[in-house]
Amino acid sequence: MQRRMFVSLIAAAAALSFGASAVQAAEEVKIGFIVKQPEEPWFQDEWKFAAQAAKEKGFTLVKIGAQSGDKVITAIDNLSAQKAQGFVICTPDVKLGPGIVAKAKADNLKMMTVDDRLVDGSGKPIESVPHMGISATKIGEQVGTAIAEEIKKRGWDLKETGAIKISFEQLPTAHDRVAGAVSTLTAAGFPAANIIDAPQAKTDTENAFNAANIAITKNPQFKHWVAFGLNDEAALGAVRAAEGRGFKADNMVAVGIGGSESAINEFKKPNPTGFFGSVLISPKRHGYETSIDMYEWITQNKEPAKLTLTSGALMERGTYNEVRKQMGLE
Ligand code: GLA
Q1: Does the keyword field hold Transport (predicted)?
Q2: Which is the closest atom of ligand 1 to the Cα of 258?
Q3: pTM check: above 0.85
Q4: Closest Cα to atom 2, ligand 1: which residue?
Q5: Which terminus of the chain is more exposed, N or C, with fewer CB under 10 A?
Q6: Are 162 and 177 found together in one domain?
Q7: Model confidence over 242-271: pLDDT tens digits?
Q8: Parent domain of 275
Q9: What is the pLDDT of residues 104-133, one digit of tens each?
């Protein structure tokens, strides 16, 4: 008994003085999770699932909202001062890419991106940074198909139907989602000329509302409207603007992307609204999996996959519970 204790004491001392791995294991793992729009339910959900990973693996999660480039840089410095080893980020502006990469490197922090992929000076994705995003084009196509099918069901005259395309061109994933929707909608026979571009200044409901309002005002010829954009907030902004102009559930079909609280609250209303559906994507994969990836990178030196694209499933007022369950979200 005494001998065994002596041997293990020697082993512990050896590990302390020479074994870097033992020292590392004793160090607290701290991971930052930086998001561009902390008030948006999607990002709240990502944080929730990141916290689940932290609890499971026993690391400290530092949640930071950074709505501007300055805030991102301050956040990275703060993480470094707190002795974090890495972070996951959805940046407020993908063009900050090279600056963020340089900052993380200078502060000796591992980084991976989620949702919005960083681009370099010429607009190309920075492929060296591991990224998890949604299969934007494919999911956009699902949106366009859902809208086209609903138009058909309602028997709307296409000549009298306009489409509000809430766009945010500076974000590649937004461009791809919306382009996907346009492609399936027009492939189903929707006239391209009736698709009204409504650029938004920021990816929230208020900015989508303003963009949609202008589109509707300028096009009084349409009796029915459909709408789509990069997320549920975009679709909701269009729905609220249309309501203000008298286009209610009977004359508006908007389909969003996300499927979190913004969409669910809409489906829970006693009467249907113009918010017809949403393609559910997984905040669990984007929050939990990225955090686990970062944890394993820090503790096992296992670098995450360079690119992971997640899929989506259409949910409607009558099916959202079931679809969320199937994605493991209920
Ligand atoms: C972007 C959008 C978010 C959400 C994520 C999903 O960041 O701004 O609303 O759709 O993509 O990846």
Answers
A1: yes
A2: 10
A3: yes
A4: 231
A5: N
A6: yes
A7: 999 999 999 999 999 999 999 999 999 999
A8: 136-280
A9: 999 999 999 999 999 999 999 999 999 999
